Amino acid sequence: MDPLRMTGAWFGQYFYADGRAPVRFIANLAEEDGGGGFAGEVSEPNHIAGTAPTLHAIVRGSRSGTAFRFTKQYDGESDAAHAVGYRGAIEADGAEAAGEWALAGERGRFRMTRAVLTNEEQAAELAVTRGAGTLR
């Protein structure tokens, strides 16, 4: 498997420029074969005032070499409905990625680390993602 592919589970954090506490997230991504496009889902604790303990978002993006961009669109069912733009780079070994996010004039940084899964766990993740129609 190409280590630069975005496919997999990622554990990450995003950071605010004003020093607010970082927010942890989990991203499950799947990169299309040959095109560099990828899609997936993100879950994170709800740090926005509201009722849902967790926020959920859909991710759509693209990768060219080590550089990538994606939009995280919150689903609107969990107290958030806005979109956040991300851009960054994945390390050559595919283990980590980092970059910047932007939302309506606010900016910050993020980083994420690829979860190491067994072959069986990777196959199950891929089957679930494809079965949910994320790639199509």
Question: Would you mind describing this structure in some detail?
Answer:
10% of the residues lie in helices and 52% in strands. It is built from one helix and eight strands. It has an eight-stranded antiparallel barrel. The two termini are 21 Å apart.
- Spatial separation of the terminal alpha carbons: 21 Å
Strand content: over 45%
Which structural class matches the secondary elements? mainly beta
Query: How many strands appear in the DSSP assignment?
Result: 8
Low-confidence stretches: 128-136
Radius of gyration: 14 Å
Strand order of the largest sheet: 1-2-3-4-5-6-7-8
**Helical segment tally?**
1
- Output mean pLDDT: 87
- Outline: globular
List SSEs in N-to-C order.
Answer: EEEEEEEEH
Sheet with the most strands, sense and barrel status: 8 strands, antiparallel, barrel
What is the share of helical residues? under 10%
Task: Quickly describe the structure.
With 136 residues, the protein is mainly β. Helices cover 10% and strands 52% of the residues. An 8-stranded antiparallel beta barrel has the order 1-2-3-4-5-6-7-8.
